[in-house]
Specification:
- The chain is α+β, with helices and mostly antiparallel strands.
- The chain has four domains: about 130 residues, PAS domain (Beta-Lactamase, 2-Layer Sandwich), CATH 3.30.450; about 110 residues, Beta-Lactamase; about 80 residues, Helix Hairpins (Orthogonal Bundle); about 160 residues, 2-Layer Sandwich (Heat Shock Protein 90).
- It is built from 16 helices and 17 strands.
- It has a five-stranded antiparallel β-sheet with strand order 2-1-5-4-3, with helices on both faces. It has a five-stranded antiparallel β-sheet with strand order 7-6-10-9-8, with helices on both faces. It has a five-stranded mixed β-sheet with strand order 12-14-15-17-16.
- A hairpin with a 4-residue loop joins strand 1 and strand 2.
- The chain is rod-shaped, with a radius of gyration of 49 Å.
- The chain starts with a helix and ends in a 7-residue tail after the last strand.
């Protein structure tokens, strides 16, 4: 028996085995030499270290026994295939190593033809991937934890690579846009940015990537319902442990409500400033423009009362005329003040109804007969009898009275004041045209501003406060109309205002 064993393991066989072992010992990876049955006939030292066995205990054992059980049948297929071709077969499986621990390996199986060609041998080279697989698993777990946190965050989260291309978007982002992940990656997300904000946003974005510094910017972003919302984007650069720039991570927060609150506060501040200006102007009018004519009227009446018998008749007549004019101006100013204050406090009644314009103008013409005659001014009314509006009668009378009075005041003697109308589908346009002094271009934008009111002398030295135009503007806008003026200095002025047409019937 011993002789037969020695014959089987002849000196030539031993030399061949030694040659194989010497050859495979040169490799740092684990190498197993298998016969076609899968029996191990030779191993190198790294293989023994991996499996934790002794060479004499490993030789003549089945390699398949080292493989995790559920992967053995697949390896047998790979092994069989390697004996039928000279191509290298590659696969991955786990083997049972030292201390019964599993190791994840990358295996290369290839038929061996350099030693004993008459025998069918196969080399299996194992590369231990356990460390790399553990790192991959850690990375996957870390990535999974990050995505879980990102997807449960209350804001939109994004990640961009070193080129500025988006590579990740969380669920909140996708829920906001209604898109799939791939739809907004790269630079595709910019298609939802409001066109007016795109240039500014790209400027901040590109500057941040160039300087590798944090940035923030506000822009409008289209939601899945096609409504633009105000968004605050914040971005922070990412660096590896070695200080290598890796791109940006950032968030987007919907700040629409905040913007609306800011706009409301700004509007309130503007309104408060206007109220203060109105208050200041109101007291200015009361203290100066109202007191002056009253003081003059009191002085005239005092002279008449004290020296009536000694005054010549012509002086008496002049004083009485001056007193009457002063009382009229004072009454007109008081009337405007009361109406203006009622508008400011919201106490003026508003009763829109169908109004025919022509009768209103005819009644007002009688009111201005004295002024028209004294300056030789012609008042032309070119309004069709059927022209009507849906408006408040008292407000409309006040608007017409002030604009016509203003036109007469600033028209030169022997001039003309015209009133005409242009019917439209929704609104009627009423025009008051004069041939007076006109208005400087730089003053046109200040006419209807309460904080810019200035007293201006008329062509016959008539006085005024400018309050009438402010009152007209507020009464026109109260009725959903508009008022504006066109004028050139020394060429007269045309005041336009609109009121709802009869068929509109809603205010």
């Amino acid at each position: 028996m011993i002789q037969k064993d020695k014959k089987v393991l002849s000196p030539s066989s031993e030399r061949s085995g030694n040659n194989i072992q010497q050859a495979i010992e040169l490799f740092p990876t684990s190498i197993y030499i298998l016969d076609e049955r899968g029996i191990i006939i030779e191993v190198n030292s790294p293989a023994l270290v991996l499996t934790g066995g002794e060479r004499k205990k490993v030789i003549q054992t089945s390699f398949i026994n080292l493989i995790e059980e559920n992967q053995r049948s697949y390896f047998q297929i790979i092994l069989d295939k390697s004996f039928k071709t000279t191509d290298t077969q590659k696969t991955e499986f786990r083997i049972i190593g030292k201390d019964n621990n599993y190791f994840h390996t990358l295996a290369f199986a290839k038929r061996v033809v350099d030693f004993e060609p008459e025998k069918k041998l196969c080399s299996v080279t194992l590369v231990d991937l356990t460390h790399y697989k553990m790192q991959e698993e850690v990375i996957r777990e870390s990535q999974a934890r990050f995505e879980n946190m990102a997807n449960t965050a209350p804001v939109m989260i994004w990640i961009a690579d070193v080129e500025g291309l988006f590579s990740f978007l969380n669920k909140v982002w996708l829920d906001f846009t209604g898109n799939e992940m791939g739809d907004d990656l790269g630079m595709n997300w910019l298609k939802n940015v409001h066109p007016e904000d795109l240039e500014k946003l790209l400027g901040h974005y590109q500057d941040a990537f160039s300087s590798k510094t944090s940035f923030s910017c506000e822009f409008r972003f289209k939601r899945k319902d096609d409504i633009y919302r105000w968004i605050m984007i914040n971005g922070t650069p990412r660096f590896s442990r070695e200080g290598i720039f890796m791109g940006f991570i950032g968030s987007c927060t919907d700040i629409s409500e905040q913007k609306e609150s800011e706009e409301k506060i700004q509007k309130i501040n503007i309104e408060l400033a206007e109220i203060n200006a109105t208050k200041d102007k109101f007291f200015s009018i009361i203290s100066h423009d109202l007191r002056s004519p009253l003081a003059g009227l009191m002085q005239i009446l005092s002279i008449i009362a004290d020296d009536y018998d000694s005054l010549p008749n012509d002086e008496k007549q002049q004083m009485i005329t001056d007193a009457a004019n002063a009382s009229k101006r004072t009454y007109s100013l008081m009337e405007n003040l009361l109406e203006w204050s009622s508008v400011q406090t919201g106490n003026i009644p508003f009763n829109p109804q169908e109004i025919t314009i022509l009768p209103l103008l005819n009644n007002l013409e009688a009111l201005y007969n004295q002024n028209l005659m004294s300056k030789g001014i012609t008042l032309k009314i070119n309004v069709e009898p059927e022209i009507s509006v849906f408006a408040d009668k008292k407000m409309t009378e006040t608007i017409l009275r002030n604009l016509i009075s203003n036109a007469i005041k600033f028209t030169y003697p022997k001039g003309t004041v015209s009133v005409s109308s242009e019917p439209g589908n929704d609104f009627v346009v009423i025009k008051i045209i004069d041939t007076g002094v006109g208005i400087k271009t730089e003053k046109l934008s200040e006419l209807f501003k309460v904080d810019k009111i200035q007293s201006t002398w008329g062509t016959a030295m008539e006085t005024g406060t400018g309050l009438g135009l402010i009152l007209c503007k507020e009464l026109v806008e109260r009725q959903n109309g508009k008022i504006w003026v066109e004028s050139k200095e020394d060429e007269g002025a045309t005041f336009y205002f609109t009121l709802p047409a009869e068929k509109q019937l809603t205010i």
